[in-house]
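Subject: for your reference before the review

Hello V.,

The reviewers asked for a structural picture of the protein, and I figured it would be easier to keep everything in one thread rather than splitting it across files. Below is the amino acid sequence we used in the manuscript, unchanged from the supplementary table.
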Amino acid sequence: MNVSKSCFYAAVLAACLAGSANAEQAPGRSVVPCALSGTEVASPFRFPAIAQKNRRHGSVQLRVLVDDEGKALKVAVSASSGSPDLDRAARIGARNAPLCLLDGKTQAAPGYAQMQVNFRMGPLLVGR
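And here is what came back from the structure prediction:
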């Protein structure tokens, strides 16, 4: 393991050991799934069938710990949609997506960030 990865994981471990107070701080930057080409985004978020059937919709605010490769190490709901199904789908989608800054092209830097996922009837929207 190289030195920068060791330092990053040591910092993550230190943040975890310091307690939830550090993790609870609102991150100041937002991330979105990376665009594949141009502005096109292949959404990693799947609208749960039961939520669609019951016409449930809402927004989920996530707190994401991004690693040095732009992937989510840890995902937590910081503001629930009010539906456990939608919250779960948002967490799963965030774990499965490469994460970028709001431009959709620049890989997200390591550290905590926020992500908003909007589940609406019709196309699924990821807050940018």
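For the response letter, the relevant points are probably these. Strands lie at 32-33, 58-66, 72-79, 99-100, 111-119, 125-126. The first strand starts at residue 32 and ends at 33.

Happy to draft the paragraph if you're swamped.

O.
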